[in-house]
Amino acid sequence: MTIPQPYLLFLGDVADQLAAKTAAGIVDWRDECCVGQIRLRGCKADLGIAELTIAEAVAKGARTLVVGVANAGGLLPDHWTGVIVDAIEAGLDVASGLHTRLGSIPAIAEAAERCGRRLFDVRQTDQRFDTGKGVKRSGRRLLTVGTDCSVGKKYTALALERELRTRGVKADFRATGQTGVFISGLGVAIDAVVADFISGAAEWLSPATEPDHWDVIEGQGSLFHPSFAGVTLGLLHGAQPDVFVVCHEPTRTRMRGVDRPLPSIAEVIDLTIRCGQLTNPAIQPLGIAVNTQAYDEAEARAYLLSVSQAHGLPATDPIRFGVSCLADALQTQFPT
Amino acid sequence: MTIPQPYLLFLGDVADQLAAKTAAGIVDWRDECCVGQIRLRGCKADLGIAELTIAEAVAKGARTLVVGVANAGGLLPDHWTGVIVDAIEAGLDVASGLHTRLGSIPAIAEAAERCGRRLFDVRQTDQRFDTGKGVKRSGRRLLTVGTDCSVGKKYTALALERELRTRGVKADFRATGQTGVFISGLGVAIDAVVADFISGAAEWLSPATEPDHWDVIEGQGSLFHPSFAGVTLGLLHGAQPDVFVVCHEPTRTRMRGVDRPLPSIAEVIDLTIRCGQLTNPAIQPLGIAVNTQAYDEAEARAYLLSVSQAHGLPATDPIRFGVSCLADALQTQFPT
Questions:
Q1: What is the dihedral sign for C-alpha B209, B214, B219, B222?
Q2: pLDDT at A28 (0 to 100)
Q3: Of B51, B58, B111, B117, which Cα lies nearest the Cα of B81?
Q4: Chain B residue with minimal CA distance to A275?
Q5: Confidence class for position A1, pLDDT limits 50, 70, 90
Q6: Under 8 Å CB-to-CB from B217, ≥6 apart: which residues?
Q7: Nearest chain A Cα to B260, which residue?
């Protein structure tokens, strides 16, 4: 499955910027593949790229309309259908990371059939997996985990892939969510897998490799999130990481989508080690990645220093300060 | 969805008795609904009920052939198709708890269409669930958990439902696996739910009820099983149990389907409390249910006494000695 680029990114009328994290992630890592954005009245997200009509996007060479938002439950609102049908009629394919299959909406299915356009449901998988086996595989693995959803797990993994490759370390980003699949063109939306096969899908995603090769695996959810912790645990067991990076957003007071406080970084480290030891007894924390955008630079540096000292681990904001301190720690602990 | 009874139970040629736990569970709890069993050459499981041909079963009133086995991965072997087609042609509906959809096998789909028979895939669900919310619901909940798969979680829950009802306590068994759904006619095969909705499905399964009503929820897998722990954790979070019963088989040396030792009962209690506190801070262990069939009665009593003393909890073998000690503890701790 290859999704034709470049993309026109559709944001619907989502209520906040976080809901557009799929589209924002694509822009962050593949901005050369995004001709612009299209939004409905009342949309509270903005990618800061060109605002285009469908006709303008087609004129700029767009080949696929990407439904680049993440709703709770992953449903496609009825009033978004018009833009999708218009895009199909203008000659675009459509790709979506929602749970709702594009083809399950009659108007969309009919338009795609009539116009000969393709519908990509990145979050769906018809692929068969085995159940997880828990057998140690060759190669090295890093998993990003978090105190919550939407705290930078994908970004941190992508930044580490880039940094390690720059240093000549063999590394591959392994996508476990729709945005990562859009970005890398490979992977599995692990929250869309049948529950029995979560760890098996993670084992498939990160097969045995050369001993000095790193799979940098995108984490999902949080062991402390009451909606998604099962996904997080199955991914942890299947990924069998040698090291993990804890991602955190220090100003968030409630977990995403539920009325509940965030766990501490220490709790996440502790439970990740405890559960991760099941499939990799040597699992250890590598460092901490913090989204410090709510702080000025001095506050951010002070916060990172305090977190680093409290846990005895390197801490950085990957967006603001890069991930070299995490790559340094990795190369020190795992010399080739 | 109502599956017509009585059943003819089909065991294929499975390699051991444990693989036929679905069929055995139906016999244990609804023997009046089972006319007999049918097996292929080499089958190592035996339910101890009448061995019938399809014609004999039809003559005894059978209405549904139940594919009553649980394979790793839940696949339907090709060489089982013949018996299923024969049953359809003899006028039986077919019900299966495997992942493979009966209708996905062309010969079976064709026969069902031609003969006007129905195919029930108990392990599949086309039902939509919300994501779990983690909000406390009224009513009381008991969840069975385990040191492994296939250690008596369903049996213990069914026995507790029966015992509590006998005592006049309002109680409902809540099925989370195919056997339980066959037995109770309700429930959800939670390992067949899309991963994002595990805890949401558990919340749906056990909705808010009267304050003194007990949902006795069938557990799945083990927090320590590398194939299925994600399912176990999502179920724990969604069930938000007030109490849990740990199920164990003391002579098993390796976990089911993987090369790995079992966790201790203490480890299971500890991790269940730690993870379960996320959605029910008051979670506590109620007791321990042990499958002692490998022991003689004196050994069984000695083992149960030692386990009870080691953990400060009542311990019983539900099959051998009943669950009155667990019901006693529940009524003592939760007087109405």
A1: positive
A2: 87
A3: B111
A4: B224
A5: low
A6: B141, B142, B143, B144, B157, B174, B176, B202, B205, B206, B235, B239, B241
A7: A134
Taking any CB pair shorter than 8 Å as contact, residues of chain A touching chain B are 72-74, 99, 130-135, 190-196, 198-200, 223-224, 226-235, 237-238, 257-260, 271, 274-275, 278-279
Are B191 and A196 in contact (CB < 8 Å)?
A: yes
Contacts of residue B40, defined as CB under 8 A and 6 or more positions apart, other chains included, come to B11, B12, B13, B79, B80, B83
Asked if the Cβ–Cβ distance from B230 to A230 is below 8 Å, we say yes
Binary contact (B228, A131; C-beta < 8 A):
yes
Q: Write the CA distances from A256 to A53, A141, A253, A261, B240, integer angstroms.
A: 32, 27, 9, 10, 19
Distance in Å, alpha carbon of B262 to nearest chain A alpha carbon: 11
Residue A39: C-alpha distances to residues A18, A71, A105, A315, B74 (Å): 15, 15, 20, 36, 44
CB A77 within 8 A of CB A67: no
What confidence tens digit (pLDDT) does each residue in B162-171 have?
A: 999 999 999 9
The span from the CA of B204 to the CA of B240, in Å, is: 12
Cα dihedral sign for B227, B231, B234, B240?
Answer: negative
What ranges in B116-228 are assigned the alpha helix state H?
Answer: 153-166, 178-184, 198-205
Please calculate the CA angle A9-A12-A16 and round it to the nearest 5 degrees: 100
Torsion of CA A259, A260, A262, A267, to 10 degrees: -160
Rounded to 5°, angle at Cα B165 from B160 and B166? 100
Token digits of residue A34? 């995004």
Query: What pLDDT does residue B25 have?
Result: 86
Interface test with B, best of A131, A147, A259 (most B CBs within 10 A): A131
Residue pair B124/B97 in contact (Cβ under 8 Å)? The answer is no
Neighbours of A1 (CB within 10 A): 10
List CB contacts of B288: < 8 A, sequence separation 6 or more: B245, B246, B247, B248, B265, B307, B308, B311, B313, B314, B315, B316
Helices (H) and strands (E) counted in chain A, each on its own, are 12, 11
Encoded tokens for B199 = 């805890």
CA distance A225 to chain B (A): 8
DSSP secondary structure letters along B51-119? B--HHHHHHTT--EEEE----GGG---GGGHHHHHHHHHTT-EEEE-SSS-GGGSHHHHHHHHHHT--E
Q: Which of B195, B274, B275 sits opposite A190 (nearest CB)?
A: B195
Tell whether ipTM is more than 0.85: no
Q: Write the pLDDT tens digit of every residue in A113-172.
A: 999 999 988 887 767 799 999 999 999 999 999 999 999 999 999 999 999 999 999 999
Q: Do A227 and B134 touch (CB under 8 A)?
A: yes
Angle at B145 between CA B217 and CA A137, to 5 degrees: 130
Structure tokens at B286: 């109620």
The owner of tokens 């072997």 is B77
Q: Is residue B73 exposed (0-12), middle (13-18) or buried (19+ Cβ within 10 Å)?
A: middle
Element (H, E) at A310: helix A297-311
Question: What is the per-residue pLDDT for B196?
Answer: 93
Helix/strand/coil for A325: helix
List, for residues B264-284, the tens digit of each pLDDT value. 999 999 999 999 999 999 999
